Amino acid sequence: MTSTNTAPATRDWSALDKLCDTYIHDYARLDPTAATDWGLPTDPTTLPDLSPDGIDERAGLDAALLATVAQTALEDEVDRVTADALVDRLGISQELHAGKEDYAELNNLASPLQSVKDAFSLMPTATVADWEAIVGRMGNVPQALMQYTQSLAYAAESGMVAARRQVEIGIKQSLSIGTPGSSGAFFEKLALDCPAEIAAKVGNDRIHSAVAAASQGYLWLADWLKENLLPLARSEDAVGRERYELFSALFVGARVDLDETYEWGLEELERIVAGQQAIADNLYGPGTTVAEAFERLNADAKYQLHSEDALLQWLQGTGDQAIADLNGTQFEIAPELQVLQARIAPSKEGGVWYTGPSADFSRPGQMWWSIPEGDTVFHTWQEK
Q1: 283 and 346 in contact (C-beta within 8 Å)?
Q2: Is 20 helix (H, G, I), strand (E, B) or coil?
Q3: Hey, CA dihedral for 309, 315, 316, 321, is it positive or negative?
Q4: Residue 184 — pLDDT band, cuts 50, 70, 90?
Q5: If you write DSSP's letter for every residue of 194-253 in order, what string do you get?
Q6: What is the pLDDT of residues 31-47, one digit of tens each?
Q7: Is the pLDDT of residue 1 over 80?
Q8: How big is the CA angle at 374 (ends 317 and 306), to the nearest 5 degrees?
């Protein structure tokens, strides 16, 4: 993700390095949300084309790089590691594309439904130009979501539809994001962060209109999912062995023997359950069930936080302490990576995730917490 005019200090760029650099910038052009994530220059008002044509174009870029890598001489061990990683990651992406998995992507945490709005959380907000970009991108949300439904419909023609439970969550999340005044009204809350002096220069009416357009886009998505996808959704969550093997490789980073892994997993579960019971006995006396210990720990005031501000401070302190304890003992952490910013997400979807720093480190790595609707007490003994 470094400019092609700059070479790493430790080695000259190989032919493969240059190919990868070109690929990253080409991909950023096709996926502006990825560009925002990486901190690469692109038109910040745009969103990726989420239609089948847009997905095909990005998959074609992956395929072209894979084909070129196979014909590129590897100059050193760094190149060999790079090539192996490319073949693994892009190869799996190509398999997913061939199976139309990328057209059908809909889930509760990491699908286009979330990525369209999440891109805004990574955009800079310090200047009038920053907010001009945010307003422009909000205006493009309805088109991106319409393109997304085109891909979902295309996949559905081949029977590729998310499980009913995932579709229902997608509907619920879309309604929360789009409904004015709701606790999860993402774009409405985002606009409240705009300083008054900047809002006056950008135009309060423009900001309001952009918020309304983006919010309405999500309400439209909720209706579309309910009317068009929910009736086709399967009731069972299981996806079958063949698809599971592919997704396992995607998340694990290796092809594993599923039967052997499940046997190991069941053994590990037995060990963990026994360990839990031993801790419960040690904390509250023999015969205390794990569930009872869980409830008693939750009721202990010293493990409770009662506000989002308190949670944010605890998150930041925990992250800072982890870096201080690990740096120089377990890892050598570069100075620019020692900044880890805790953030409370404006959404109310639940979940905790990490976003990496921008390429120039102007935006630090961030750990995000999306507090589920109705959660007001946070238990540090669980969360740490």
Answers
A1: no
A2: helix
A3: positive
A4: confident
A5: S-HHHHHHH-HHHHHHHHHHHHHHHHHHHHHIIIIIGGG-BS-----HHHHHHHHHHHHS
A6: 999 999 898 888 999 99
A7: no
A8: 35
Bridge-based pairing of strands 365-369 and 340-344 is parallel
Backbone region of residue 259 per phi and psi (left: phi > 0; alpha: psi in -120 to 50; beta: other values): alpha
For residues 334-346, average pLDDT = 90
Give the residue among 351, 353, 355 at the shortest CA–CA distance from 371: 351
Residue 129 near residue 202, CB atoms below 8 Å: no
Instruction: Give the dihedral of Cα atoms 218, 223, 225, 229; nearest 10 deg.
Output: -160
The average pLDDT across 220-233 equals 97
How many residues belong to the chain?
384
Environment class of 71 (CB within 10 Å of its CB; exposed 0-12, middle 13-18, buried 19+): exposed
Q: Is the pLDDT of residue 183 over 90?
A: no
- How many other CB atoms are found less than 10 A from the CB of residue 102? 20
pTM of the model: 0.85
DSSP state of 5: T
Q: What is the 3-state secondary structure (H, E, C) of 305-363?
A: ECCHHHHHHHHHHHHHHHHHHHECCCECCCHHHCCEEEEECCCCCCCEEEECCCCCCCC
Beta carbons within 10 angstroms of residue 31's beta carbon:
24
Query: Mean pLDDT score of the chain, rounded to an integer?
Result: 92
Report the run of H or E that residue 186 belongs to, with start and end: helix 186-192
The answer to whether the CB of 47 falls within 8 A of the CB of 33 is yes
For the record, the structure tokens of 217 come out as 């886009």
Predicted confidence (pLDDT) per residue in 67-106, tens digit: 999 999 999 999 999 999 999 999 999 999 999 999 999 9
What does the alpha-carbon distance between residue 164 and residue 106 come to, in Å, rounded to a whole number? 11
Q: Which stretch of 28-42, 157-171, 339-353 has the lowest confidence by average pLDDT?
A: 339-353
Phi, psi (5° rounding) for residue 382?
-80, -45
CA pair distance 377, 375, nearest whole angstrom = 6
Q: What is the DSSP string of 140-163?
A: THHHHHHHHHHHHHHHHTTT---B
Buried (b) or exposed (e) across 281-292, using 16+ Cβ within 10 A?
Answer: eeeeeeebeeee
Task: Determine the Cα–Cα distance for residues 363 and 213; give it in Å rounded to an integer.
Answer: 28
